[in-house]
């Protein structure tokens, strides 16, 4: 079942939140935890004032007691989860798993719809991104706020209350409390969207991962300014994988910034992508020579930005197309010279969502840009600002939720849906599982 629901609503503005760093989850007593350097993700290239510095190969962390409060009585202690108990075993429902504790800036969300991503089946199948058993997968959902930390709404979030409908995107991959293949998810209150009233829970479950990834591409990788009034750029973006969920949201952000968008995708998605503002669609089943010829024809002034959402192999193709068109950027008058009469560097920029080839395969004419998803939660000020601004875009239907294929049946049906996602692919729509009330 596929569905899109789009309505125009009036523009509203959000206040500017104040920010404080997120503290660890609540514990009954202080305890010391040894965390090895190898267990920490690769360093995030943020300004030094925002980096998490490691002083030794073993870092001693003091986890302090914190208190949480709720505006309603929430006495439930256990929940159902969909757990991974072994790489070779089927997923299992556990009905006596503890509900996550929340820290002062977090909320507890009762999940109503869950979005599925390829990583949810790839991690188990290929044995990566799973750090202990039982393990809970799931990176996005939408649902209802049932509990508040004691610092939520102390000028730190957009006025969340018990019963609010929210959209969740979990980028803190090692923290199972934030995973979504469970009835209840703990998440930073500053990093959730309120679900616009014109959209369903299922609409909301399509948004999190795709929009956050697209946002990182533009506002971190490519360095666009994050503003409620997007600055218009004269340039062209090439997306390989235009009908992927990331491609769908990247195209919409690109159009907000005035870019010309060329999407390589199956022709059957052409009408849908055009409805989102994509300017040109090139059939991904055409030969490499045909695709290159069409790109050359459609980009007389060159390609400024390239995004690959599919594989390392297609990333190489995008890089080569950027390289072969780079001379157009350098000769184009649209960038010209700066105030001193010096030639402006007009090299194309590339970002690969799934993977990038080895350094020797990257043309010297192309700037490779990293895709640092974890900045969304590690740099809370950036993440909260992104939430505030894209909330406006969602409410005003400047960004529209992706189409979805709906599965009813709750946690029990997720494994079947993941099998379909692996065998069939997303096919221009998000796989969404609806949970029972």
Description:
It is a single chain. The chain is of the alpha/beta class and 437 residues long. Helices cover 24% and strands 22% of the residues. It has two domains: 2-22 and 69-208 and 376-434, Medium-chain alcohol dehydrogenases, catalytic domain (Quinone Oxidoreductase, Chain A, domain 1, Alpha-Beta Complex), CATH 3.90.180; 223-332 and 343-368, 3-Layer(aba) Sandwich (Rossmann fold), CATH 3.40.50.720. It is built from ten helices and 19 strands. It is globular, with a radius of gyration of 22 Å. Residues 1-72 and 333-343 have low confidence and may be disordered. Strands 1, 6, 8, 9, 10, 11, 18 and 19 form an eight-stranded mixed sheet that branches. Strands 14-13-12-15-16-17 form a six-stranded parallel sheet, sandwiched between helices.
Order of helices and strands: EEEEEEHEEEEEHHEHEHEHEHEEHHEHE
Structural class: alpha/beta
Overall shape: it is: globular
CATH topology of the largest domain: Quinone Oxidoreductase, Chain A, domain 1
- Kindly give the count of domains: 2
Secondary structure: helix percent: 10-25%
CA distance, first residue to last residue: 20 Å
Described by strand count, sense and barrel closure, the largest sheet is: 8 strands, mixed
CATH homologous superfamily of the largest domain - what is it? Answer: Medium-chain alcohol dehydrogenases, catalytic domain
Region (Disordered): 1-53
Pfam family, one: ADH_zinc_N
GO molecular function, one term: oxidoreductase activity, acting on NAD(P)H
Protein name: Zinc-binding dehydrogenase family protein
């Amino acid at each position: 079942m596929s569905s899109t629901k789009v309505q125009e609503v009036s523009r509203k503005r959000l206040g500017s939140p104040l920010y404080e760093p997120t503290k660890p989850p609540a514990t009954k007593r202080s305890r010391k935890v040894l965390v090895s350097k190898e267990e920490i993700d690769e360093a995030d290239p943020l300004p030094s004032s925002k980096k998490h510095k490691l002083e030794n190969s073993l870092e001693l962390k003091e986890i302090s007691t914190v208190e949480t409060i709720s505006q309603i009585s929430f006495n439930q202690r256990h929940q159902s989860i969909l757990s991974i108990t072994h790489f070779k075993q089927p997923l299992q429902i556990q009905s006596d798993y503890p509900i996550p504790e929340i820290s002062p800036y977090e909320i507890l969300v009762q999940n109503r719809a869950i979005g599925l991503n390829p990583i949810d089946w790839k991690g188990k199948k290929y044995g990566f991104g799973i750090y202990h058993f039982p393990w809970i997968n799931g990176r996005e959902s939408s649902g209802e706020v049932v509990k508040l930390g004691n610092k939520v709404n102390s000028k730190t979030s957009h006025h969340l209350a018990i019963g609010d409908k929210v959209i969740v995107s979990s980028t803190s991959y090692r923290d199972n409390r934030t995973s979504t293949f469970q009835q209840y998810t703990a998440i930073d209150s500053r990093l959730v969207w309120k679900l616009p009233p014109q959209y369903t829970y299922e609409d909301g479950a399509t948004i999190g991962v795709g929009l956050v990834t697209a946002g990182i591409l533009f506002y971190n990788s490519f360095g666009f300014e994050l503003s409620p009034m997007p600055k218009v750029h004269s340039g062209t973006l090439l997306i390989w994988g235009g009908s992927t969920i990331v491609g769908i949201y990247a195209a919409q952000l690109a159009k907000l910034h005035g870019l010309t968008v060329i999407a390589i995708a199956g022709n059957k998605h052409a009408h849908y992508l055009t409805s989102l503002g994509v300017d040109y669609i090139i059939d991904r089943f055409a030969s490499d020579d045909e695709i290159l010829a069409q790109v050359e024809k459609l980009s007389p002034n060159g390609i400024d930005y390239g995004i690959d959402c599919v594989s390392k192999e297609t990333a190489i193709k995008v890089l080569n197309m950027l390289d072969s068109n780079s001379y157009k950027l350098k000769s184009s008058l649209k960038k010209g010279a700066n105030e001193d009469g010096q030639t402006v560097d007009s090299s194309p920029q590339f970002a690969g969502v799934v993977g990038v080839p080895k350094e020797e395969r990257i043309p010297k004419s192309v700037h490779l840009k990293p895709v640092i998803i974890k900045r969304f939660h590690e740099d809370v000020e950036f993440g909260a600002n992104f939430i505030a601004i894209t909330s406006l875009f969602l409410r005003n239907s400047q960004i529209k939720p992706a189409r979805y294929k709906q599965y009813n049946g709750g946690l029990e049906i997720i494994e079947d849906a993941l099998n379909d996602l692996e065998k069939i692919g997303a096919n221009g729509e998000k796989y969404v599982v609806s949970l029972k009330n």
